[in-house]
Amino acid sequence: MKTQHANENVNLEAFRKKNALLQQDVADILGTSRGYISMVERGDGKLSSQKLDLLFEAALKNHWDTSDLVPAYSRLQSVMTYLQEKDDTSNNYFLAHLLTSVIEEKIKHGEIGINEAFAEAIVKQYSEIDKEWLLDGTGEMLLTPKGGPSELELLKEEVRQLKASLLEYQETNMRLLQSLPTLIADEIARRSEQSVSRNDS
């Protein structure tokens, strides 16, 4: 059951289940009762701005998926993380002027969404970001360039290659470990033969 928080849908139950949390876990984070969390999930109550802040802080700290809390804010966080990872020295300056703390708080609490002008300003600066995704979450954050893979696809391929390399490394180590007893036995036999030869002479 989705519960309304200002202008955005906050699906607390989906957030909790997606991140393998119990109602009591969420209650502990928010300093409230499991019954209150159950009530919010049924649609008989809503999260205050303060409690939503606490939940976002815990999610950020634990790397939880926040897309079911305030979707627009979750998308904004994804953009900010992407720009930080992009290591573009101009992005902090750009975002600071585009996104005042008041606007960020209003988006975070579901009081406003990401509007057309805001999305247009970001896309103008970073053309690889999909405007439709910014506005309503449709599709992927990054556009796929014509004739080439997206940055996300490239990252996935890099991770796949690293996993393959790690697996090969582990298999090589396993083969060495399995052959170790034979190598040790051969070395002991060789040294015994040398010792016997020296004693005979």
Commentary on this structure:
The chain has three domains: 69 residues, lambda repressor-like DNA-binding domains (434 Repressor (Amino-terminal Domain), Orthogonal Bundle); 73 residues; 56 residues. Helix 2 crosses helix 3. The N terminus is likely disordered. A two-stranded antiparallel ribbon has the order 1-2. With 201 residues, it is an all-alpha fold.
What's the arrangement of secondary structure elements?
Elements: E1 3-5, E2 8-10, H1 12-18, H2 23-30, H3 34-42, H4 49-62, H5 71-86, H6 91-98, H7 101-108, H8 116-125, H9 131-136, H10 151-200
Antiparallel strand pairs: 1-2
- The stretches of 5 or more residues where confidence is low (pLDDT under 50) are 1-8
How many runs of DSSP E, i.e. beta strands?
2
In which order are the strands of the major sheet placed?
Answer: 1-2
Tally of discrete structural domains: 3
Which structural category do the helix and sheet elements fall into?
Answer: mainly alpha
For the largest beta-sheet, the strand count, sense and barrel status come to: 2 strands, antiparallel
Rounded mean pLDDT score: 83
H/E element sequence: EEHHHHHHHHHH
Name the descriptors:
single chain; 201 residues; mainly alpha; 434 Repressor (Amino-terminal Domain); 3 domains; 10 helices; 2 strands; 68% helix
Would you kindly provide a brief summary of this structure?
This protein is an all-alpha fold and about 200 residues long. It has 3 domains: about 1-70, Orthogonal Bundle (434 Repressor (Amino-terminal Domain)); about 70-145; about 145-200.
